[in-house]
Each structure stands twice: as structure tokens, then as C-alpha cells.
């Protein structure tokens, strides 16, 4: 089986459960699969103290331990007044999530709107 690379784009906070299940299924289907999750828009609210879900954050951390990269958009964080200090150290902040998605696609990643 070939190795696949996907970028999962999430921009709605209530889509996290579906997204995390999809990512888990993808990376566990074949050991060589690579996944990056890019969160922008309302999905960045999961990183605020008021809305942080400990179970969700544990699932994110577990997937990160399996090799999934998590990226968060700084523009969306600022727009929603989520402080960058709240972002876990295993989540990479980028200036613009949409630019990160375009970059990954230029590197051969397929795109999934989660």
C-alpha cells in the first residue's frame, strides 16, 4: 500500500470530534500515512481556557504522539482573542492557516475539509 499525505482543514469548533476520528482512522489505516491538521476560524476556540475540553485535548495530544502535526492560525487566534500562551507546545502556530494549507498542498498533501 502506498503512503498517503493529507491535510485536514478544520474551521468550526463543533467539527473536532469528527475531525479527530477521521485523522485517527487515516493514520492507523497504514503506518506510512502522514497527516497535518490545520485549525483556523472558530476551531481555534478549543485552545481557549474557557472552551478547552480536556478529553479533546488528550485526543489531540495522543494523535500528536502518533506523528500527526497540529497547526493553528495566528490570525484566527487574534480575531477570537485566544492568547497564544494557551496553545500547547505540541501545536505549531503559523501566521495564516490558509497559507499553510496551500504550502502543504504544493508539497503533495491531499486536502480534506473536515
From TrEMBL:
InterPro entries, alphabetized: DsrEFH-like, Sulphur_relay_DsrE/F-like
Transmembrane segments: none
Pfam families from the UniProt entry: DsrE (PF02635)
Protein name (database record): Intracellular sulfur oxidation DsrE/DsrF family protein
PANTHER family: BLR3518 PROTEIN
SUPFAM superfamilies given in the database record: DsrEFH-like (SSF75169)
